[in-house]
Write a structure and sequence with these properties.
Elements (H helix, E strand, L loop, with lengths): L6 H7 L6 H18 L27 H9 L6 E3 L3 H8 L9 H11 E3 L11
Antiparallel strand pairs: 1-2
């Protein structure tokens, strides 16, 4: 059985700043990776490599990064959107070596690409 990791340790090892939105995005990214791979969230660790550790999981054997972004965006209900360069940035964080792409690289890149969009108030006037 695979060792589990609590969210706090996961955030610390991914070097995510102690800011609520960044932590929420990072944990949403972790949940998305786990859900797409059909494994428990707490089993996803920062140093897991997609080409080695996660490739045997469903979904991650044929990377569909758009599916990942959609999964991460869902819990935020449109309040947080992600720049399309998430995966390019993640590969840069992996030293430009796609085979070395780790969960921590994808999580950090996802946090960096997140933009908060507050709900816009709609005002109605009686005519």
């Amino acid at each position: 059985m695979r060792a589990t990791m609590c969210d706090g340790e996961f955030l610390m090892r991914c070097k995510i700043p102690d800011e609520p939105l960044k932590a929420q995005v990072a944990l949403a990214a972790r949940r998305a990776i786990a859900q797409l791979g059909t494994v428990p969230t707490e089993t996803i660790r920062p140093d897991d490599r997609f080409a080695h550790d996660l490739v045997q999981l469903p979904f991650w054997d044929s990377l569909d990064w758009l599916g990942y972004i959609i999964e991460v965006e869902q819990p935020f209900e449109g309040k947080v959107v992600f720049d399309s360069s998430v995966i390019d940035e993640a590969v840069k964080l992996a030293g430009g070596r796609p085979l070395e792409l780790r969960v921590k690289h994808v999580v950090r890149a996802t946090v960096l690409a997140a933009s908060y969009r507050p709900e816009k108030a709609v005002l109605y006037e009686d005519i």
